Amino acid sequence: MSEMQTILTLNSSDHIMLEVFRDHLGIAAPQMRKEILRLQGDVVKILASKGIQYSDLRSALVPSADRHEAAFIFDSTEIESGMYGREVLKQVLPLLDPRTTQSVLVGDLLGDDQDLIVEILQESMILARSFTFRHSTLLYGVYINNLSSTTLSQLHEKLVAFPAYLGHIPTSFASRAKAYLSLSMANLFLKKNRTLILGHEGDRSNAENINITLYPLEDFGYKVASLQEVYFGIFLSYKRTPCLWRVRS
User: I need a surface site. Which of 50, 59, 160, 237 has the fewest CB within 10 A?
Assistant: First the structure.
């Protein structure tokens, strides 16, 4: 019998399958635990078949007190293409350290309470350039964890050359900004050195490796390793906050 591996993260809040098992199928806690361990065993085997050790992904999935997290914010109106997320990733990907393991999340800054979002930006954002706030949905964020202080500073300094880059929001510690961003950012991929791990359709074999996103992930020396979204979503997606709390104080 193989040695049981520690589950690095369990993203049950963002993925409906475990909730369905518990609330709609009436699966009791002991059986639920067995099902989770079975699914995690599948993840370990699938990754191993692609040359990736699950335990090596800890730094992308488990926060560390001596590493940083930040959301880098871009003005989509400064990008000519309607596929502004693609253009942003073209700027960000070449700047990532190919030796590191980290999670990358992306998303528009959503929310109905625009006054609150302005407050959060004003109190938390380190500006690269001044800008006039029009609406949060015109802003696009790239959230990256497991950053050294040097890498965080270098990313900020190098992205300034891109006219759409507005600045970054530090999210290493609990804050209103971190709680708000947890509602806007979605996991895009997990980076293990030069391999990008991401999800693909549930009816596609886990033996395949395919980039189903619109982002040019392979254009900068990276290779893609993909597996079914149910596995990626539950076991390989970074949880931005350890608990739920109200954004407005």
Answer: 160
| Pairwise CA distance, residues 218 & 199, whole Å | 15
Whole-number Cα distances in Å, 111 to 114, 137, 148, 242: 7, 8, 30, 21
Give the pair of three-digit tokens for residue 170.
């530090």
DSSP percent split of the chain into helix, strand, coil, nearest 5: 40, 20, 40
Q: How far apart are CA 23 and CA 116, in angstroms?
A: 34
Strand order in the sheet with 101-108: 126-127, 165-170, 68-75, 139-147, 101-108, 186-192, 195-200, 223-228
Q: Check if the beta carbon of residue 228 is closer than 8 Å to that of residue 213.
A: no
pLDDT at 105 over 90: yes
**Angle, vertex CA 9, rays to CA 4 and CA 11, nearest 5:** 125
pLDDT digits (tens, 9 = 90+) for 162-208: 999 999 999 999 999 999 999 999 999 999 999 999 999 999 999 99
Torsion of CA 50, 200, 139, 128, to 10 degrees: 10
Tell me the CA end-to-end span of the chain in Å, nearest whole number.
50
Q: Mapping DSSP to helix (H, G, I), strand (E, B) and coil, where does residue 158 land?
A: helix
CA proximity to 70, closest of 145, 130, 134? 145
Please enumerate in sequence order all residues whose Cβ is within 8 A of that of 112, keeping only pairs 6 or more positions apart, or say none.
none
pLDDT at 34 over 90: no
- Does position 24 have pLDDT exceeding 60, yes or no? no
